[in-house]
Amino acid sequence: MFSFCADPKSLEGFSWLFCYLTSGKHIDFYWSFLTVLILLAVTAPSALLFGFGGAMAARSHVAPLRWFGKTYTAMVRGVPDIVFFMFFVIALDQGIEWMKHQIVCPDWKEPIRQGLEFRVCPQAKVPLGTSSQIWHQLYGFALAVFTFALVFGAFAANVLYGAMNAVPKAQLETAESYGMSHGQVFRRILVPQMWTYALPGLSNLWMILIKATPLLFLLGVKDIVYWARELGSAKTQAYAYPHPDWRLWYFLFLLVAYLCMTRLSEIVLNRLSARLNHGQATAAGEAMRRAAQ
Amino acid sequence: MKKLLLATALLALTGGAAAAQTVRLGTEGAYPPFNFIDDAGNVAGYEREFGDEACKRAGLTCEWVTNDWDSIIPNLQSGNYDVIIAGMSITDEREKVVDFSENYFPPADSAYVGLTADADIKTGVVSAQVGTIQAGYVAESGATLLEFPTPDETVAAVRNGEAAAVFADKDYLAPYVAESNGELVFVGDPVSLGGGVGLAFRESDDELREKFNAVIKAMKEDGTINALIEKHFGPETKKF
Question: Is B240 inside a domain boundary?
Fold first, then answer.
């Protein structure tokens, strides 16, 4: 990166460390923090959306929709994350390719499953074998976001379902007696009030989501844990910057980074919680009212 | 006439695209000097240079992809990449699920490395990478096998006392021993395992395999492979 780093083996002391920490591999490591942050930023709202849909379905008056909502939360919550990330993603990927195969190659004669192999026609590969590496990475990332959203959405659905049931019934009845329709009661009374009950559960999920990001590597996305392990492992003279096993230092750094992320989230979530509790007929809202008096 | 011209032009274009076929090469990126991620973040090592040269000669555009060793065969089969080029030894067991090319690295010795020359490799704990021929050998040798997902961890296990010795390719271990200032030493005699290192293909990909076989044969004959082996493994390594 810098001209004086051209010959790393001749460097010593501070300049060696400086060049080492700015090597291309380390830059990739720093970028991977951004990957994780983007993943969190995209996954959290999508998981909330999945959860909201799941909770609405589970409360629905239409029986099949209700069954669907309940099955979704029960099934996804019951399967270990790691199984989900190994099995479901492969199935999803192959499912997409299989469907594309039916559309683009209707004349394909050979069987798609040949023993352990999965062979769709080359035009049906997603992304195409000829597309550049960035598309493969984006596709992997999109699969990751979808899977995370699906898994965490099931938990969020349960939290939101509980929160919706926790809104005092008297409020909903009052709204109805004012002549509001079901939809209006839902939009104007139920949804705005349920967040205060949902927040503790959702904040738990957010914390777990932050800590679950290393599962990304199972999906082929290089995250911070992958790079920490790769950079920290002992390097022989085949590398430009040989060093002994430094994984301890890299993982300590990760420990601090994760603690910073969760601490920052805690501060934000506490503020949000205070804001939502304001004026609510809950114990926390009551405590705020007394403190203000 | 115009339409005909257009059609011909289109045909020529698509023909050109088909000739420059893209092949995705899957490697582990953690097995120096065979393959590793260099400090610029790119795949490097013997297999990088060999693979790039082979692709050039075969007229293919090649892209490098890294994948965990543990899932490297399943991901080949599900089509995430087309070739495994990851220091994979040719064995009968693997031949059942993939097809190998001709070897591009001769059948090499595996060796034990421990902290002392009298480390207990017969009955003690021996570390090896999961899913390798060395792991299979240790499991049958009577020693207690301790498996790790990456090769680096198998060596680290010896350094921190978790294992009495590590069993791996001699060419992989040699730099670790040489640079350890006497901390690590070879234990016992080397063992010859496997039929050399080959490229692995899906069983349905015979055409691509034949293409690479022809190139490897030519590269062996004109000495390119020997020169590359000497460059990355030193003059004492076995050659063709």
Answer: no
